[in-house]
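Q: What does the predicted 3D structure of RNA transcription, translation and transport factor protein look like?
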Amino acid sequence: DETEFRNFIVWLEDQKIRHYKIEDRGNLRNIHSDDWPKSFEKYMKDVNCPFKIQERQETVDWLLGLAVRLEYGDNADKYKDSTPDGAKNTDNAAKNVEPLINLDVNNPDFKAGVMALANLLQIQRHDDYLVMLKERLTQEAIAKASQSKEGLPVALEKHILGFDTGDALLNEAAQILRLLHIEELRELQTKINEAIVAVQAIIADPKTDHRLGKVGR
């Protein structure tokens, strides 16, 4: 529902995110205005949301994640010692060794992070963010990634990433992922070109015999 959606955005800004000063929230609060979509688009840019206004589900997840982070930041002392009921009896040492064991893949922040990373790395997106991860973690994909390939060394500092994560190691990892993705796209383009040549050889009229270097029937 459009009205509920707009009210939800206003509530998040008023109660949790509070990016604007109170006196600057007028346009966003005017949910019945025809210009509200423009105000919302400006708001998304101001809070550095990586999604477009048409991507509502992703936007909602991302804004909720932002609100949770800010809520925690405002009450860090209250939440830092909190432990989920189901995790109170777990072995802390084991958790430290396996930090991903208790990862909640349904967490809106996690989902928004996956989608944002896909956008930043220009990886083809899927409606189900878990499908994107599975496609990258199939046995075939892992086996392919494990194959050693000879190539020339790459100077990462000469490749512009186009964004900054704020962490040098993450920036380097993102550069590597983007270069690997570009390599996959080039391999796909090569296969497409080979397929086009093969089809043209079959349907060409007059027939072309590449082996003889001549055109004719």
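A (community wiki): The structure tokens above were generated from the sequence. Residues 2-81 form one domain. The chain has a mean pLDDT of 75.
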